[in-house]
Amino acid sequence: MAARRDGSTREISRRGFLGGAASALAAGSLGSSVLESRGAVIVTTWEFGPGANEAGWPILAGGGLAIDAVEAAINYVELLPDEFYVGFGGSPNSIGETTLDAMMMWGPTHDVGADGCLKRVKRAVSVARKVREETQHTLIVGDDATRFAVRMGFVETSLTNAASQQAWEEWSASSERSDAWDPEPRGSGGKVEGHDTVGTMAVDAHGNVCVGCSTNGRSFKLPGRVGDSPITGAGAYCDNEVGAAIATGNGDVMMRFLPTYHAVELMREGASPGEAAEATLRRIDAKGYRFDGGIVALGKNGEHGGAKRGWEEEAFGYAVQRTEGASRVTIAG
Ligand code: ASP
């Protein structure tokens, strides 16, 4: 449906209508009768998790929707000036340009918006939300994603900053630099430097489940590379009856296994979030891959857990916030 396609109509798109209707229905009369957060929870990966959750939690605490909380949490990380692996700057591709991958999945309508290799636009997860709400599509990429974002009102701006420029200059000047041209030998591959993803999952007080993620992807990737983050069931997945899962790590390997879809389906069959995460990684091990990566899963009942491979030198974990308080979980290797 051509909602706002010429910029002049306020007609609501099919997805916008369905999403909005479902949201309103699920939320009751938002802002008036529903003002409590019992059962609500937000979970975000990595060390920026506590700050991200703090950005999203007030929305859940006020009876708001999980989708708004997830967007606020991820925007917080995307706009941090010094965060290297998410958002602008930081970790550029092999020609020195920072490009972004993001997605958002909304449980009540089982609806996804995503963007890959997004250039010159910040807040990639909000662009993903626009894809979900304003179009019939699921994934939009490259310069066309930039054009779409600008049409949706986003500002076009350079994503290069001093840190990304310096990182690229040092990498380019190094005679021993590794790049992504030679396929990694099976069994020893997957140990790539420089990558992280913010992944946030939330359940709101009305029982709506949402997941989103955003990254600037693997450092010095080939131009045009899209990782696992914007791929449904790879970077993130949710089912409103079951819960959600998010992935981080070597997306080039992990996306071959749709691990977040797998984890949610295992939870549907009765696995705990931790068991489900571990079982998805075991499936990757079984094909001979050795890689750095982690899965975090959240049951609709608020139970959470995760598993990881590699990252011997790094403390991989996630942060949780709910009415009872905030906590951090470090996943043992
Ligand atoms: N999965 C991301 C990618 O491969 C990076 C990460 O989460 O570490 O683009």
Detailed description of the structure:
With 333 residues, this protein is α+β, with helices and mostly antiparallel strands. Helix content is 30%, strand content 22%. The protein is built from 9 helices and 12 strands. The protein has helices at 14-27, 49-61, 66-78, 124-134, 142-151, 162-173, 251-254, 259-268, 273-286, and strands spanning 41-45, 99-106, 111-119, 139-141, 198-203, 209-215, 236-239, 243-249, 293-299, 304-309, 317-322, 325-330. An 8-stranded mixed sheet has the order 4-3-2-6-5-1-11-12. It has a 4-stranded antiparallel sheet with strand order 7-8-9-10, with helices on one face. The longest helix has 14 residues, at 14-27. It starts with 13 loop residues before the first helix and ends with a strand. 55% of the residues are buried. Residues 1-34 have low confidence and may be disordered. Aspartic acid (ASP) binds next to strand 8. Aspartic acid binds next to strand 8.
List keywords for this structure.
4-stranded antiparallel sheet; single chain; 8-stranded mixed sheet; 9 helices; globular; 333 residues; alpha+beta; binds aspartic acid
